[in-house]
Amino acid sequence: MNQSKIDILIKALIDEQKDINLTDLFNMFINHSKTKCRFGTIDRYTKDFGVINSFLFKNNIMTVNALNVNVLDKFVNYCKSRNNKPITINQYISILKFMINYAIKNDLINENPIRHFEKVKEDTYNGDVLNQEQVTSILRYVDSKPNTIWDLKMKCMVYIMFDTGVRMNELLHIKFSDLKLNENKIQLSYTKAHENRCVYIVDKTKKTLQTYVQRVQNVGYLFSNIDNQLCSISYRRYLRSIGKELNLPFELNNRLIRRTFATLLAEQNINISYLMELMGHHNLRTTQRYIKANKKAIQDTHNLLSIVR
Questions:
Q1: Most exposed: 107, 150, 257, 286, by fewest CB within 10 Å?
Q2: Does domain 9-105 have CATH number 1.20.1250?
C-alpha cells in the first residue's frame, strides 16, 4: 500500500473520531451567538445549558459523541420528576441542538448523535386566562394606589400590558422617544422579531403615561430604576403581589396577561390578521396558541350564523 493511500486511511480514521467537549463547544457557540443575539437570548442560552450540562456531568457525559437518544430520554424523565413542563424541557434540549448544528457547520464533528430525538409533546394550550371582571379588578387596584413615582411606574406598566399585550422585554425596552401620545400609540423599537412595531393605547392609558412622564427624568428607557437598570424583577414581584391581594386562582404574570389580551380580543371577533399584528407574530399558528377556545363564545357564534333559520 503506497503512502498516499495510508494518509487517506489515517485521515478517514481521524475524521471518524471527531469529538468535542460540551463545555468547550458551548463557549464557542455562545461567543459566536454574541455577534447576532441580544443579551436576553444569551442569558437564556447560558441558564438552559447550565441546567442540562449539570445533569450530563453527573452522568459522566462530557463530549458530544457521548450523547444519544437514551441519554436525552433520561434527562426528560429527570425533568418530569421535577415537574418541569414540556415547553421548558424542550427549551433545555434546544440549546444542545443549536450547539451541535453549529459544530457540524464548522466541521467540529461528523454527525448529530441526537438527530433522532423527538421533542416532548407540548399541550396545544397551556395556562389560564383572566376574564373581563378580573382584568377590571386589577386595573381598579392599581388605580387605588398613591401617586408616588414608583406606583405610577408600576401602574403604567400594568396598563400598557393589558392595553397592548406586549412581551415583557418589549415593555422594559420602551424608550421615551418611542411614545407617540398625541397619536395614542407606542412605536416599539425593541421587538422579538427585530422589527419596529406599532401598538395602540386608549385614552386612559395615555393619561396615565402623561402623568408619569411629567414626573420623571428622561434617562432613555421609560421604566429604568435610579441606576438606569431595567426594573424587571420589581415588576414581576408587583404582579405576583396583585394576584395574591386579589386572591386570583393563578399567578399573575406577563404570559397570563398576554394570553388574556389575545383571548378577550378574539372573543370579540377581532380579525385574526389584526390580532397577529398587535401580538407581533409572523405566523397564524403562533397567534392561535395564545387563544383559549371559549365554548360559550363558539355556541353564541353558531347560533348567530347558523344557516338553519
A1: 107
A2: no
